[in-house]
Fold each of these.
Amino acid sequence: MRELPEGRSEDVFDDYKPAYTTNQARVEANRCLYCHDAPCIQACPTGIDIPTFIRKIATDNVRGSAKTIFDSNILGMSCARVCPVEVLCVGDCVYNEMGVPPIQIGKLQRYATDAAFSQEWSFYEAGESTGKSVGIVGGGPAGLSAAHRLRRFGHAVTIYEKRDVLGGLNTTGVAPYKMPASRSVQEVEWVMGIGGIEVKTGVSVPSDISWEDLEAQHDALFICFGLGPDSRLAGDGADLEGVEGAVDWIERMKLSTVDVAKTRCLVIGGGNTALDCVREACGLGMPTTMVYRGTEEKMSGYAHEWAAAKQLGATAAWQTQPTGFVGEGGKVTGVKAVKLDDAKQPIPGSEHVLEGDLVLLAIGQSKLGELAASLDGVTLEWGRIQCDEHGETGHPGVFVGGDCRNGGKEVVNAVAHGRDAAIAIHARLTGGN
Amino acid sequence: MPDLSTNCAGIKSPNPFWLASAPPANSGAQIQRAFDHGWGGAVWKTLGTPIQNVSSRFGAIAYGGHRGVGFNNIELITDRPLDVNFREIYETKKKYPDHAIIVSLMVETREEWKEIIKRSEDAGADGLELNFGCPHGMCERGMGSAVGQEPAVNTRITGWAKEFANVPVLVKLTPNVGDILPHGQAAKAGGADGVSLINTIKSLIGVDIDTFVPQPVVGNKSTNGGYCGAAVRPIALHMVGQLARDPSFRLPISGIGGVTNWRDAVEFILLGSSSVQVCTEVMLKGYRIVEDMIEGLDTYMAEKGFETIDQMVGRAIPAYSEWGNLDINYESIAKIDADACIGCNRCMVACHDGAHQCIHPNPDPTKHVPVVDEDECVGCNLCQIVCPVEGCISMVEVDNGFAPASWNQHISDGAVVRPKKGAH
């Protein structure tokens, strides 16, 4: 794994939710009602025992608090920062029902897990060797979660990662005001601390190593290679300089540098990647407009993210469909667009050009499921690899998790997939024990 | 790895956390569930001639948004048939042989004590706890605290129990006495293997100011009950410490009273308890609190280098002394961390109105941090207590050049004491 360079574009961002001091954490922890069978637990894809970890902060058992979190979610440190808690645990806090501000679960989780990192507490040891080996294709949250759990069971683990860094979108894609790449890399090292996780970076599957070879080397496989490149927009001028895929641009912004000397940024799309781009471009000092086919009410991105973007001065062109690009000297200068009616049909005569010298396409990413389609029994639906509830595909011994299974959800969903697949793999390799 | 197992008066349990004799220890199903959560022992809700209870039974104090800081009950001993209780004790002990089951007892005559002790032991009790503490309902019938308040009666009945019992006998003491020592000594004189304290404190939890009926309301009347919960912990700590530090006492102690978490439990252990009993916090939060208690105690012991509970028991006793032995020449003053101060001025008003008028507004009106007149500060702690920011106000030791001297040394040996501060 390579080290991150100094002077990355993401360095300009500060924490948008500053960490709690001990005082603040205790005050907030003591507000928690310590509900039984709490809605916040139900809302967490990894089912962290939230009331318990919060009570442990209140009783000054912070070490135990961190362990409660990591027992369910080994990436609890990053999830504390990147989870959309407003629509998960915090959104379901019973205080909302009382009209009282909900418990800031994410910030409390960050308090406990940050303490674990800074105090270098370690909770887990690798299990006694079982002689079994599992290959993990993809070094993102799902893969790390599975690898750690499998090592606790005592299985040998090899991660195959096409990039030269691990952490997946936690490293390459998370908005830097939530978590910089450097923090994700620290988390990767923390997870690796269990020992015995072999990592092969710069290896793509199946182009660099075939499925047959992987199956020959391992007793089970876990596929978690995420999503593919950004989808492109058809239309004139799609190849102009300055027209970029959103995920690709974010990765460069986080791991190296992007050109911030642009006069206007246009972000195409209305999902959460688009909103990240809008907030990031604004934060980098570029006036930014989001261009979306639908309405503000129906956008798929989170309302709280858009509210934050507006505070940064972002504007939006709603019900607007890009049809092509205009440029000069090979560089983009604007997006050709047409207004849509409520049935999403173009309104004749509404054609216009939106000016912009950076156009970020956040209209989805391609699915990589085809890469695994050559495995007997593996089936796809809309490019997503199909599996049973435990993550096992139609090819016995091959499991799947993360974005290539669910089409692209949160980090915490991937962590749950990885953990649960590891438990199922362990059951398979040990005859159900 | 610290060893959390404990031996309190010959009663062994995998950890020092026991359910106190109370509603959470009312039945086998409950206690088995508690053991599954991690409780090391349970004192079965007091057995005797089953009684009839009233409704309602509980009251609580809310303070600063926290309900249940202090708690009160008028429930009596078991209302379930003795046969059922003994069968469940037997089943529970069989299923959980390594956990401690102590049976709390309260009957009247010698013959009744003989019979109920035999039945308890036949059911598998690891120990007995004589309920000489209940301050409501039972005492009017000549039991509970009516026994605990009379040392001679305490000694006599404890003697009966010891005559009939083969397992260790703990005497549960009432705090509704002027001085706990003679009552602990009375139990010892009767042959008790240990004591447990405190039982609840006689109390009236409140009055409904609209209906003019005290609480808890039973129809249109109420009665006094037993006070417990976090608020009673200082009273319990004092009584536990009083017994533990008396060289003529030296019996094992099971500490009870306002334990809400592992830190509270550690305090009881440091003051001489070799097991700690909990009721109210379980009633408010459930058996599940014990996981944090075990984990917190384990981490604490590892950090402090304690390998066994025994090494902790009574570690704070040497520093628990009489006022006359305190070093009068020790001097401390308040220091305010200007960077941490949020400018609420609570310290200033507390000092002006409730202490010694030595914290003043900053002479620079653009600054919000109050200033301490160090020549006047008596080091009373009030400002630190009212400060909402942890660590903002610290009490700092001052080297005043006087050698340590207690009041007793001053009286007996003429030791030099420093001039008074703030006494003008």
Amino acid sequence: MLPLVILIAALALGGYFLARRRALASAQGDSRNLHSLPSYYGYNAVMSVAVPALLVLGLWLLVQPMLVQSSVVDMIPAEAVPEGSSVNLIMSDVRRLADGLDAAVSAGALSAGDATDLSAADDLRAWLAERGVAIGAEISPEVLAAAQAYREMTATGNFWRNIVVALIAMIALFLVLRETDAEFRARNRVEGGIKALLILAASLAILTTVGIVLSMLFETINFFNLHPWTDFFFGSSWAPNFRGDSDLSILPLLWGTLYISLIALLVAVPIGLFAAIYLSEYAGPKVRATAKPLLEILAGIPTIVYGLFALLTVGPFLVKVFGRGDAGLLGVDWMSGATSVLTAGLVMGIMLIPFVSSLSDDIINAVPQSLRDGSFGLGATQSETIRQVVIPAALPGIVGAVLLAASRAIGETMIVVLGAGAIARISGNPLEAMTTITTRIVSQLTGDSDFASPETLVAFALGLTLFVLTLGLNVLALYIVRKYREQYE
Amino acid sequence: MSDIPNPAAPFADPRGASLLVQDGRTKRRNAAEGRFKLYGIIAIVIGLLMLLTLLFTIISRGTGAFQQTYVTLSVPLLEDKLDKNGNRDLEDIKKVSTFGYSPLLKAAFENKVEAAGIETDLKSKDMADILSKDAAAQLRDHVLANPELIGTAAEFEFLTNSRVDGYLKGRVTRESIANDKNISAEQLDFVDVLIADGSLEKRFNLDFITGADASDARPEAAGMGVSMIGSFAMMLVVLVLALPIGVAASIYLEEFAPKNWITDIIEVNISNLAAVPSIVFGILGLAVFINYMHLPNSAPLVGGLVLTLMTLPTIIISTRASLKSVPPSIRDAALGVGASKMQSVFHHVLPLAAPGILTGTIIGLAQALGETAPLLLIGMVGFIASNPPENIAEGLMSPNSAMPAQIYEWAKRADPAFYERAWGGIIILLVFLISMNAIAVLLRRRFERRW
């Protein structure tokens, strides 16, 4: 593998100098007779040699393991799969065994001939474990045979891969040198190649979105094959049970998510909005220059910090106020644990203040001064102008900002993981612990997860719901902003 | 004009009041004005107050983690306990497990009590219990590294356990330990004596910054160092991947892309990706990089890839903004002297936009550095990252944690001594974030050009 890459690099580098010299030679050594600058001929050669060769190499690396795997899987008889195991686990053992043997051969601990003649009786597992290769189960003759076949096929595949890729690189070099002369439009070719690369980079965004949707969609379909979708969308309780027969309904989680987000917005929107109004309409340049960046620090603090703040500071404080019976500040006993909807909501609200204030600030600033002047001219005070002229003009933008903040709140994870609690319930009491979609995704997917059980797969369905929800809010926000925006010109 | 009397006074106030005296309505309006302004001031003050509270909490609770309590002891390395054959054979010395070393610690305390004339009812076992559970292992490692010390008495510095440490930091008091099995009031009395004696003291703890995480029983030995390396490895991946890809994508969209539906889709996509919750990227990473591509679980490489996808929109948006701010005259001039479109972009526009791109990249990196949620899903929590990796490849591929994930891990543990570590970890994390943002601001100030 490494020698092959070095060979390609060497051919490409050689191609650079050869092509450059050839072009110059065909122009009688005077670069003014060339169509492009001499180095472009070189770059063209590098590109023509390396790109097809590396492309084929990459494709081969992707396809060969799949082909080998599928033909080796057929070698493992169904009765060789022990109870409680799966073909996939056996295959990973086969792969590891084959890799271990190869590593032993290349390290010189085993001769190539010995490696093919090994038998399962030699207590291979212990021998390999000593060399740092851990195998999950005892090595059965079938696994060993499969591993040997795996090694053999991989070796053959690698051999042909090297030959094919090296040939492609050499042929490309030959072809590119043949077409290189003074008239050849090397710059156009190179620039075309660079442009293709740029397009590739830009389409990675689409690829990411497709990846997100597909990866969650497939597992969600798997989930709905194992678990009725009616229970997921319309059930009333969330009680995962790893022995099976769980209630997996999104409604309690959705309720918790929306409740916490609502509290967060009740904190963030008034504070953020009034801060934005003050900063853009009243504050002098000095106050603005200090207060705005200071507020924005709140947005730059990592969410884990807010999570810890919720769990260790705000939660205990709220318990002191609303809990502990007579020992508490209010003398009531409404709250028992530090985690609650209010805890998470308050802290999330703090996090969202700069989000609302910055966006609204920009929008209020975009309202033209002539509107304000007109209002002042009619005798309105500044606050009347703001309430009756500036805010209505900025309203679509402000609604958009609030929707974006809501989408942030719904997708926020660390604050609710640490501050909201783990009990799924539908209740109106903000002092109780509730749980959210994001918290459940984290808890279902961390630790030992079995990707064949509905209890794990439900996380993908939750993730997809979350994705659709936040995407919907974002699109709605953009739509409102675009549709109702006033155009002043 | 003004001196001509106007007996009709057609413009007099209809209510007959003077302009100089406010009437009730004007007063109300002015009061409303004042209130409205006050709301704004209150909002800003609340916001700033929250910031102050947050910073104050972090600093007041976190600084303790940078100090740790140490005991200085002279430990007799008895030959009959450590090397019965007396031939200093390393294999023989290795046979003595950490259990074999705890009598030495007890003996050290006995000697101490005798030499200093301390009066105490404690048994030597209880005295040795004020040390970290790590002490015997630390002693053993040192002896194995220096077998020639056997038979002598050597000075050692041991960490005390987290309760004693908490006592010195004011977290643990005699009242709070009434039901605590790990420490007794007599032990605290003994600690007081040792403090007076000068052999037990609290001082700066470099291990918190450079050391590895420790198990649940030893909060006093836990450090951020290894997870810091994990974070750096991830940032390396993000920098290497996100910067070139992001810049390439922005150049295409800003300079070359034709105005058509494909370009529209890409643009809408990028702005939507910027708003996708980070945990969704974690799900993507789990499904694609771990379950499908079989990359190793918990590896910083996977974390870096996930964070790359997450950071790309940020970098693309800021890069496009800085490309846009380069005036078209620069492009026109380049084209006018015969450069191709590609040359004008790469030779002229890109260098001029570079400071802005760099600033955006640093801010994107800072964002990625503080991100936790996706890391939980790809398994970068829940284990103890014990040894620093030996080289870059291992640093990328072997399981590790990251700074925010390590903080989360500590926040989840039962012992309150870990909370102090978590706050301390936050201080380290914030120091990184603040310095990165400061560099970004300085770069912007230094290189920003107004056209």
